[in-house]
């Protein structure tokens, strides 16, 4: 197994890792599973002609307020990550508005649907377009869903 450091260099594990023995009285480190089981609230909503997302329930779920400053980050995968603080803001009516440049990059048109995931443990939103979601499902081998899958 190879591990990569933050600069992308490959690090190979040692063939004979050092041996450690527990000494009475020293604290023990407990390893936990890195798979997050924290809740993520998902909603599918439409984008209007001004880039506003119709549903606001995910903002209520996170406790975000109208006019709050946010940062919109476009990932290489073209997924969006949005968190508090930054040069953008929620509208005064409490809507999330995607700027025109972001909509153009994601090829979003008025009426298109997006999947919004609210992650309260990270105070973050994730937004995926429907083509991205279809691609992810196809990559996982999900090509069709029938009555036996319900």
From TrEMBL:
Kindly list the GO molecular function terms attached to this UniProt entry. DNA binding
Q: What keywords does the record list, in alphabetical order?
A: DNA-binding
Identification of the protein by name: AbrB/MazE/SpoVT family DNA-binding domain-containing protein
The organism sits in which domain of life?
Bacteria
């Amino acid at each position: 197994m190879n591990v990569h450091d933050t600069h992308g260099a490959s690090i190979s594990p040692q063939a004979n890792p050092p041996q450690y023995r527990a000494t009475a009285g020293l604290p023990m480190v407990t390893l936990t599973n890195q798979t997050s089981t924290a809740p993520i609230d998902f909603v599918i909503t439409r984008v209007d002609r001004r880039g506003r997302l119709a549903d606001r329930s995910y903002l209520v779920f996170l406790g975000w307020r109208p006019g709050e400053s946010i940062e919109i980050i476009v990932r290489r995968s073209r997924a969006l990550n949005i968190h508090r603080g930054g040069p953008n803001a929620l509208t005064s009516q409490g809507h999330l508005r995607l700027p025109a440049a972001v909509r153009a990059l994601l090829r979003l048109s008025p009426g298109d649907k997006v999947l919004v995931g609210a992650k309260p443990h990270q105070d973050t939103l994730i937004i995926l377009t429907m083509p991205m979601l279809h691609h992810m499902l196809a990559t996982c081998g999900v090509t069709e869903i029938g009555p036996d899958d319900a």
